[in-house]
Structures are given as structure tokens and as C-alpha cells.
Amino acid sequence: MMKTALKLAYRNLIGAGLRTWLNVIVLSFSFVVIIWLKGVMVGWDLQAKTDMTNWEIGGGQYWHENYDPYDPFTLTDSHGPVPPEFGEEIAQGNMEPVLVVQGTIYPQGRMQTVAIKGINPEQDIFLLPTHKLDTVVPAVPAVIGALMARNLQLKRGDYITLRWRDKKGTFDATEIHITDIFSSNVPSVETAQVYISLETLYDMTMMHGEATLLTYRNEAKERSEVDGWVHRSKEQLTSSVDEMIKTKSVGQSVFYFILLLLAMLAIFDTQVLSIFRRQKEIGTYVALGYTRREVVGLFTVEGAMHSIFAAVVAAAYGFPFLLWQAKVGWTMPIDTSEFGMAIAQTLFPVYSVGLVLSTVAIVVVVTTIVSYWPSRKIAKMNPTEALRGRIQ
Amino acid sequence: MKNNTIIEIRDMTKTFPMGKTKFTALRGISLTLGKGEFTGLIGPSGSGKTTLLNIIGSLDSPSSGEAIVLGQSIGALSAKEAARLRKESMGFIFQSYNLLSVHTVFENVEFPLLLLKKNSAERKKMVMDALEWVGLTDKTRSKPPHLSGGECQRVAIARAMVKKPSLVLADEPTANLDAANSHNILKTMENLNRELNTTFLFATHDEKVINYLRRKIYLLDGRIDKDEVIEQETALISDHR
Fold first, then answer.
1. Fewest CB atoms within 10 Å of the CB: A213, A320, B92, B218?
2. What is the ipTM of this complex?
3. pTM above 0.80, yes or no
4. Is A155 on the interface with B (CB under 8 A)?
């Protein structure tokens, strides 16, 4: 009977012409928008985590036990000797120690508190242009982020005064030379950060052989806890991105719900009107040998079939659109650098087979339920009255 | 029930609730119908002929008494059994054709065969045979809105006959047709009745139809008033008052 119902439903829908295609187009729009938006969220998530990995956290980190990235007052005490068990990994270049010290810069007579980060110029775990720290200039070479450069109106080649406190608490100052300005999508790497050579910072602070952070490249390797240091896995370090995406997803889910609601309203109205108009036809089906339950099934299949047609239509124009979007990305209409979170100006949607299939499944199931609801009325119809076209 | 008896009704009554009262559409109906009959239920509006036709067609059930159609007691059938009876053994022809307007002529006639799960090749042959009986083989791709009234009713006849049912029930089949078309339709049904020995039962008050009938059952106020069999030159009249 299912095969017959599918055949009949298909004929009825095709025969209904424009009425069918209007519903199908509206429903297909839901498909494409939902997949695109979910793709944007997945792409954002992936992009943010990739950017964080490339610019800030590598494969994971060890933090000094006193270190709290949200509390600059902890910087004074959050440094310690690099554990000897990491010696080999550091020598191979698969782990980089970073010393973080609080400082102040004075661009154009103003004062700006910064975190001075000492890093190996030859490192290649981060995309930071640390090789520019090897430049021979009559000041301490430093690189800064584009965000800070814009805010403080700094440019390449500028000389600015840097003040810091050494290990014994004594203030000292020197001039730094901006050898490069880099642009990342991770504000925490750019804002109020000055990167100089680790050895230079050791000399400045007399904290030789010490570090605040140890960043490693290989996230797959099993890591154990070390005395005086707290292990932070990549998952832990990117959890803020997950939280942010989750928050955005809630809002997005509301949007999906409204979009689906509008599409389902169209389906529901079509079904109600269809059953009202086609009472004689329903009576005829019963007279020709369908039970009323089977007619309910037929109308439900008809309604649900709109979503199948919609999926096909969505694939026809959605596929090239989504591919194009994945290639060119979606440029946010507002400046994202001020958001304070890892978000690129252009987001590239990422789609998966699972995303497409789950969206199709949800829409088909919801459409089926919405089609069945008004069709139940048919089971209560008197076929003799229906045959006469008497409104019931 | 005799072997060639298609319908046997014994003291059947049908009432409908109307608020706090009841309306009795059929009172104490008793009749039998044999295989191959070309019979009409005749009477004015409200005489109960459509109600009787609906019960015989298992679309409704009696309030009391018994109605045995093709060996099955209508009142005892479940919805599924009643649907199977209609699907396998009955054809319906309606006053307003009741064709599926978005389906082609071929698809309309094919519909009962889909329910019987006939394969594609069988369906095609049976549909074309049925369309040949009614002279519409050149209209297979047309849709009902593009057909005349007469053509629509011929499609309805083809649909009713395509599975070669034992019984065809026709409710006012000529009500929406002009005289010429009415005679064409009736002639077609008469030929099918003679060739295939299909029992035809009409509900009508149209004189054109009445003149073709070989048996006339007159209904008045829910009762059988007269049951007249026309056998060639012989008229057999029985008074059921």
C-alpha cells in the first residue's frame, strides 16, 4: 500500500502544479538557509580553533601554577624554571617556553600596560613572525599585533619606550623597535602584547631559564602533570570557543525554529485546505476500496512529499550556492576585530554529509508530523457525505 | 443464498439520528438480486434509493435486518473487510463522475488496479481494454477538465468496469448529461452487462434510465412500493404495499 500511496501522492502533487511548487520553494529555502547557517557556525568554530592553535595555544600548554591569564597581578609570581623533563622536546623545537612579564609602553607620550612575552625567535609552533626578532637594530626588536598597532597608532619602524620590573622588583626601561606588525584573528594574541626575544627578556628580567607557559606542538602525545605546572589540553584551552558557539547556536536555533515554523505553517494550511476541498475525492478513494486510515496515510505522504521535492529543489540551487559560499566565505558586515573573540572578518562555512542529512531528516520528519495532524480528520469523515461533497 | 444471487436483503431498516429524534430512511426492505441483472431503484428524492445503494456498496451499514452482498453480511464487516469487498468486487459510478481531476484518463481508470496490486503490464492491458469498451482509447493522456460530460462518465464507467467486478452500483449516472449522452452511456452499460454478465444496480428517477432497465424496484418513503421485472415482452408486477 505504501508504494501505491507514494505513486498516487506523487501524481497528486505534480497534478496540483503551482500550488505544490510554491510550497516546495518556500520549504527548500528553509533547507538551504539552515544548512548554510549551520555551516557558518561549524566553519567559525573550526576557524577559531585553528587560529587559536596557530597563534596562541599550539597543541596544548603547561601553565605555571600561579598563572592566570585573566589576572595580570599574577604575572609577578607566575614564572619558574623550565622542568628538565621537557628539555629534549624543547631542543627538538616541539615545545617552546614563553616568559610573560608585566610591562608598560609609552607610545606618543601615552601609557599602555602590556604583557611582555619572551619567545624563541626561531620557533615555528606559532605563526607569529618571531624571526623578525632576530633583526639587528639599535633597540630591542619587538613585534606587535595589528589591533594594538591600530589602537596606539603604531607602525613598523617605530621606536617606543618599554618599562618593566626585573626579578628583584627593580624598575628598568629601554627602547623597543617595532620590526613587524602581524594580523591574526585572535584578539588575545594582539591586544596589549609585545613579543621580544626570550633571551633578551631573560637578560632584562634576570629570570634565566624560566618560563610562564610551555607550549607544545604534538597534541596526540600523552601528557602527565608536572610539579609546579598545570597542564592545559587543547580542548580545555578552546572550550571558550565552544561556549561561545553554543551561545550563538541557541540564538540560531530560535531562528531555525521560526523559519521552520513559517514553512510548516504553509504545509499545514495547504493540508487543511486540501482536505476541505477534496472531500469528494476522499469519498471516491473510500468507494474505490481505500480504508479511511489508508486515505489518512495518502494525505500524510502527500504532505511529507513536499519536503522531498523541496530537498531536490534545494539541492539544485543550494548546492552551487553553498559551494560558492565555502569558497568565497561570508564577510561580516561589521568589524569583527572589536568583538574580543576569535572571529575572522570573513567566515568560511564548512558543511558535512552529516549536517546535510540531519537537516533533511529533521525537515522531513517535522513535515510528516505537520501533514499527519490535519489528515486525522479524514478518519472521522462519513464517506457517504464526503461523496456528495457535503462539508463535514 | 442461491449461487447466482448477488444481493439478499432481509427486513432491513436504516435510521439516522437527527438531534433528539431519528429519521428512518429505509423501512423493512427485503429483496434479492441475481447475477447479470440490470436493475434500478426508482423513486423521488428522499425515497431512500441512495441510502440503499450505499448500504449495498458497504459504504454504510443497516440499523437492523440483514444485507448480504456477494456472500458477505454488510453489517458484520469491519472497515478493512468492507474496503476489500469494494476493491475486489464492486464498481461505482457517480452522478458527478468523481474522477481525479489531476490524473489522466489512463491513470483514473488504472486506479482500482493499483489497489489490487496488479503489475504494470497487466494494468496497461486491462486499462486499454476498458477504454476500448467505452470508446476512449484516443484520450488516455487527457485530463477530466478537458473532457465533455459524456466522456467523463464513460471514463467513470471504464474505471468501474476495469477490474470486471461482480457488481456495479450507479447513482444517478445520467443526472448531469444531456439526452444524447445519456443514451450513449446507458447503451454502453447495457452492452457491458450483456457481454460480461456484470450486475448493474442503478439509483435513479430519470425516465431515460428507467426505460433501459430490465427490473424496476420502486421505492416510496423508504419502502419498496413495486418490483417490476421486464422480461422481453413479459411484464411481471408484484405489489409490495
1. A320
2. 0.91
3. no
4. no
